[in-house]
Amino acid sequence: MLEDHMHDNCGVFGVFGNAKAAELTYFGLYSLQHRGQESAGIVTSDQGTIHMHKGMGEVSEVFGKEESIHKLTGNMAVGHTRYSTTGASSLINIQPFLITNRRSSLAIAHNGNLTNATKLRSRLDARGSIFQTTSDTEVILHLTARSSKTRRIDRICDALSSVKGAFSVLFLTENSIIAARDSYGFRPLCLGKLRQSWVVASETCAFDIIGARYVRDIEPGEVLEISAKGLRSRFPMKKTRAACCIFEYIYFARPDSKIFGENVDKIRRRLGRRLAREHPVEADIVIGIPDSANTATLGYSEESGIRFEIGLIRNHYVGRTFIDPHQDIRDLDVKVKFNTVRGVLKGRRVVVVDDSIVRGTTSLKLVKLIREAGAKEIHFRVSSPPIISPCFYGIDMPTRQELIASRLSLKEIERYLQVDSLRYLSLKGMLAIKALPDTRFCDSCFSGKYPIKPPTINGKDRLASKRSRSA
């Protein structure tokens, strides 16, 4: 439903040193549900035996029966909630993955996308590796199994040094959890503390639900081993310039999370303020497209002095529709998810703030709803620049031809959406809202400049034909 928006990638969560590790991981994944709704899984260790439960569906569906959690014994756990960006949406690709190698077990949960997975997979396949899934994550396990290093932590470091692209990954062994992040730091990963236990998660909102406190981010290029001996960090990967995904701030992360060293709510509010300074307009009210644009809309309202109103109501209980609407009710998909507040919109000059425009089809339907509610004028404002290029680092994004801003000019998009005016935040303005002084972002979907060269298939660039599908 509403395939015009980019899909969240995946969420990972881990606990070390707590008798209720599985239960804590369940709640952690519940908080990370926005990062993936296709499948979920948890693997635990009780210092010798590995237990696992996973399935298709949301976290509450997969672990709906109480016994599914109770059988996951042990004081350490790793969990994963998935939206596929590499590999099909099917049972075989549900994470965590678990293997036995050299008489020991190893599980993995991955958020990201490996740009050299196809090349590595072909090489491993030629050497006799047998793949069980279509996910790029399995490549890391095969590289680990084939490493000539003696110690397991060194084999993991060896494997991670061979892959390219984006990965925030958690490993679980019989007696430790290992957290690692690629040297560019594309996707977030943070460390927390719950009394004497250690926790790791994609976002800090997963700490809040269990009462853990944020300690720090896992650093780009860091491999952090958590065991009974405490914490030990290694930096085996080649050091590079950081390139944190700025779209995490714009859309993916929850506003109550802290990622890349800064609160998401604060960054989104800055984006909205900057947007109001760059593109002011005379209007009566400003409304946001719920929920991801709410905070940027507040920033726009505060900076512009235009009153913030709730003009659209989102239905949070929408699943997948089981029928395709006929042509005469083709707008039913957006009406199932959104409804207008007519008393707020009728006769008003309205500023509509959204975080991004992808294909433009959903934006067009929302504008139509707002017009039908009686809005006098509609001025569309976007708290990010035009999206002109696909992502290769863990975001499910359309091909370049499907991105409306890559094929139409600003005026053409304005006419397509049937709005009185359309303006985007500038690239310079977006990058001016740095989280921390030394934070550097990946803005490839807005600039077309990639920190890592996009993968190729049979020597051909995937920019045009690719539909990025990660872990």
Description:
The structure is a single chain. 27% of the residues lie in helices and 26% in strands. With 471 residues, it is of the alpha+beta class. The chain has two domains: 10-243, Glutamine Phosphoribosylpyrophosphate, subunit 1, domain 1 (4-Layer Sandwich); 264-437, Rossmann fold. The strands form seven sheets. It has a seven-stranded antiparallel sheet with strand order 3-2-4-1-10-9-11. Strands 5-6-7-8-12-13 form a six-stranded antiparallel sheet, covered by helices on one side. A five-stranded parallel sheet has the order 18-17-21-22-23, sandwiched between helices. It starts with 9 loop residues before the first strand and ends in a 10-residue tail after the last strand.
